[in-house]
UniProtKB/TrEMBL annotation:
Pathway in which this enzyme or protein is active: Protein modification; protein neddylation
GO molecular function per UniProt: ATP binding; NEDD8 transferase activity
Similarity annotation: Belongs to the ubiquitin-conjugating enzyme family.
Organism, as annotated: Cannabis sativa (Hemp)
Name of the protein: UBC core domain-containing protein
Length: 295
């Protein structure tokens, strides 16, 4: 009986000593980890803010991860955060982390690039105005794209481009087409181009300034070309349109007409159509309609 009592007392004393040592070790561990955590947290946030221009949501995420790490290590049975952290800790982490995730934020690199672009644009404007002249008008996206299209033009010898208002007005220009084959061989046809500021998201407005007997061009100069209507795409360019216009003269199409009388003659009697074209280009009449000489 005495031996059992003594063994119980010894075991109880050993348990108490063990608990005191464990609590003391835990307290010491927390005291050591807390300053390290504070230093790490401060360093991390300074690094994120200075080098990466971190947003508040990014800092919130970093703080919540630091909190998760600290709570898991400070737990009495630390070392297994995903299994041992109490449910309350997990709920706190979820509440803090997920609202702060930067799902709608631009990446820091994107923000920096936008800022850099604005700085360079401002520097360019200042440089252009350094000689005391009037402020230079900023080019629209449509003008920039059109300038690129013009510099990359690769036209046949039968096509030419001109700027009646000067090179300062790129949005309005003219194209002259002189077909070197087909029904319209020897003719000269002038087209006007009016380009929208939102080009290339909207096709240019093209008119034929030369009155012509043609199934796909009416007497008011409207042009039936699919890429100027429903088939227009922003990947197309001015070069594509000019080649399309040239193709209308080498291979006129009676299936999609604007001048229905000319289309019917082309379909039913190609020889008569050719005769009508030559007469119109020479400055004569086709039916009751007169045409200016364009040869």
């Amino acid at each position: 009986m005495c031996i059992t009592f003594v063994e119980g007392a010894v075991n109880k004393y050993a348990y108490i000593v063990s608990e005191k040592r464990r609590k003391k070790a835990t307290t010491r561990s927390i005291r050591v980890r807390l300053p390290i955590l504070a230093i790490s947290y401060t360093t991390l946030h300074s690094y994120l803010y200075i080098l990466y221009n971190a947003t508040p949501s990014t800092l919130s995420l970093s703080l919540s991860l630091s909190l998760f790490y600290f709570l898991s290590l400070s737990h009495p049975c630390g070392g297994h955060p995903f299994y041992i952290v109490p449910l309350l800790h997990f709920i706190i982490i979820i509440v803090i982390v997920f609202p702060g995730l930067p799902f709608t934020q631009n990446p820091p690199q994107t923000e920096n690039m936008i800022r850099l672009f604005k700085v360079k644009e401002k520097q360019r404007e200042l440089a252009e105005n350094a000689n005391g002249g009037a402020p230079v008008k900023k080019q629209s996206a449509g003008e920039l794209r059109l300038h690129k299209d013009i510099t990359e033009l690769n036209l046949p010898k039968s096509c030419a481009i001109a700027f009646p208002s000067g090179k300062d007005d790129l949005m309005n220009f003219e194209v002259t087409i002189r077909p070197d084959e087909g029904y319209y061989l020897g003719g000269t046809f002038l087209f006007s181009f009016q380009v929208s500021p939102i080009y290339p998201h909207e096709a240019p407005k093209v008119k034929c300034k030369t009155k012509v007997y043609h199934p796909n061009i009416d007497l008011e100069g409207n042009v039936c070309l699919n890429i100027l209507r429903e088939d227009w795409k922003p990947v197309l360019n001015i070069n594509t349109i000019i080649y399309g216009l040239y193709h209308l003269f080498t291979e006129p199409n009676y299936e999609d007409p604007l001048n229905h009388d000319a289309a019917a003659v082309l379909r039913d009697n190609p020889k008569m159509f050719e005769s009508n074209v030559r007469r119109a280009m020479a400055g004569g009449y086709v039916g009751q309609t007169s045409f200016p000489r364009c040869m």
